[in-house]
Amino acid sequence: MTLRLEDLVGLEVFVDTIRLGSISAAAREHHLSQPSATERLRQLERRMGVRLLVRGPSGSVPTTEGEAVAGWAHEVLAAVDRLASGVVALRASGTSGPLRIMASLTVAEYVLPDWLHAHRATGGAPVELAVGNSVAVARAVAEGAVQLGFVETPRRFPGLSTASVGGDRLTVVVAPGHPWARRRRPLTAAELAAAPLLVREAGSGTRDAFEAALAEVGFELATPLAVLASTTTLKAAAMAGDGACVLSELAVAGEIATGRLLAVPVADLDLRREFRAVWSAGGAAADVQRFVRLARQAGRPA
């Protein structure tokens, strides 16, 4: 059996299910929907080939095998933290070079340019920037490919430290000809959850945040109308009348201002989300600390 990076999240969910007494409590701890947390645990059980938990109406308790795995899981998660600490120490002792940053798409396109300008204006080190979805960003930081990441997902990532650097709000947008454009009352969370939507791919911070918001009020995302891998493609599809989508207010401000898209209010759903910096849990080099401080000072509230 070979553990993968995504299994570490499952291990954390498993350990926290035992600690908190239920999968739903562990899901809240990790900002996951309960179905998502349950699926991670099932994947972990399938990969290990043993049953880890006994699930019941009053909560979840470990099996005999689960108790043994939990003890080893604590050691594995502690080892991940030690590994991250060692890698940070190695990088800090090497020769200086560009600050390697990777950011999720919304942060990279609409927030990071101002941070980079302030960083350069105050004598910061040269920056090499890569862009990907939030899960790809966390993986790059965990593997040491970059020193600092910025994500927009509520997921937690083992072995990484985090700090809030502001946020934004998701908004439902449609073309002027869409039926929702003529509504006089806000959408309900139930209506939004039941509608086939244009959505980003799994691992996208925008999709994660939207699914987490639905889970908070007891709903799951319906089968998508289409899954598209970029904000630009989603906006183009929505403007063409293909369907509704949920995107950052930063990403659709221009289209709303010109009337190409219309924002649809939602009555009972908190669509605020947080942007977070992530770096190795073992510590951060001086350039990383400096950039995080700058981002926190400039961060916009959600």
UniProtKB/TrEMBL annotation:
PROSITE patterns for the chain: HTH_LYSR (PS50931)
Limits of the HTH lysR-type domain: 1-63
Keywords recorded for this protein, A-Z: DNA-binding, Transcription, Transcription regulation
Short name of one Pfam family: HTH_1
InterPro entries reported for this sequence: LysR_HTH_N, LysR_subst-bd, WH-like_DNA-bd_sf, WH_DNA-bd_sf
GO MF annotation terms: DNA-binding transcription factor activity; transcription cis-regulatory region binding
Keyword Ligase: no
Family: Belongs to the LysR transcriptional regulatory family.
Record protein name field: Unannotated protein
